[in-house]
């Protein structure tokens, strides 16, 4: 927390108006944060994540931070319909549904139970995100018997030979509801980054996860390239 205005006035021999104007400019630029009833603080520098296939734990260690988790929920239950369809959709490039043991056809109406894990992810003990993930029990039975406080991707790869090899991510901006605000220690209505991640292991659907990130702690970086136009396209330009 920054000292009071009087300290700056006396130390730098400037007026209170100048102090307030400088502080206001720093708040507007994101360098400082004012918290009502508490004071003014130096803003945290958001961690930057690429859209690669690193797990949260790997990302935090790459930033020199200590990853951690708080388990909010760990159970087996029926997923939402869109997740059921995703898990039953078979290989990524195929319309053939996955077959359960016994080669019986998949029936979406049977509503198979899958592993459901909701965690608050921490960086050096500070909440960064909420991960609400579903995991395909056809491919990874008894997943919850493992240490889900740590990296799910490590468990999937090491114990089930289901390394995540590709993901489809969809990002959007949302406002924190009361539950999210409490878990992430932000104000209700604070901006969050919502990321839907559909993950595959060698073309097989393994994870459906919705994450909510604090925007003051996390930034998403994407590298986009443009394919070269072929000669026929260039000729028509």
TrEMBL record:
GO terms assigned for molecular function: DNA binding; DNA-binding transcription factor activity
Regions annotated as coiled coil: none
Protein name, as recorded: HTH gntR-type domain-containing protein
Positions of the HTH gntR-type domain: 1-45
Origin species: Corynebacterium argentoratense DSM 44202
Annotated keywords: DNA-binding, Transcription, Transcription regulation
Pfam families per UniProt: GntR, UTRA
Swiss-Prot/TrEMBL GO biological process terms: negative regulation of DNA-templated transcription
InterPro entries documented for this protein: Bact_HTH_transcr_reg, Chorismate_lyase_/UTRA_dom_sf, Tscrpt_reg_HTH_GntR, UTRA, WH-like_DNA-bd_sf
């Amino acid at each position: 927390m920054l000292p009071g205005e009087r300290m700056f006035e006396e130390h730098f021999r400037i007026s209170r108006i100048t102090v307030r104007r400088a502080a206001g400019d720093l708040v507007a630029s994101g360098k400082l944060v004012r918290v009502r009833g508490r004071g003014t603080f130096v803003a945290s520098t958001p961690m930057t994540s690429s859209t690669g296939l690193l797990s949260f734990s790997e990302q935090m260690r790459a930033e020199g931070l200590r990853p951690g988790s708080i388990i909010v929920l760990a159970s087996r239950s029926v997923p939402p319909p869109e997740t059921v369809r995703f898990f039953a959709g078979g290989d990524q490039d195929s319309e053939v549904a996955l077959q359960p043991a016994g080669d019986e056809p998949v029936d979406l109406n049977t509503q198979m139970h899958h592993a459901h894990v909701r965690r608050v992810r921490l960086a050096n003990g500070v909440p960064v995100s909420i991960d609400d993930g579903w995991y395909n029990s056809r491919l990874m039975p008894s997943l919850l018997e493992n240490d889900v406080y740590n990296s799910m991707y490590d468990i999937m790869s090491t114990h089930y030979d289901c390394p995540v090899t590709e993901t489809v991510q969809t990002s959007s901006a949302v406002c924190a509801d009361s539950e999210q605000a409490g878990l992430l220690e932000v104000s209700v209505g604070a901006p969050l980054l919502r990321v839907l991640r559909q993950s595959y292991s060698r073309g097989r659907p393994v994870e459906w996860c919705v994450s909510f990130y604090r925007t003051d702690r996390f930034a998403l970086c994407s590298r986009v390239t443009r394919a070269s136009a072929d000669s026929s396209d260039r000729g028509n330009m």
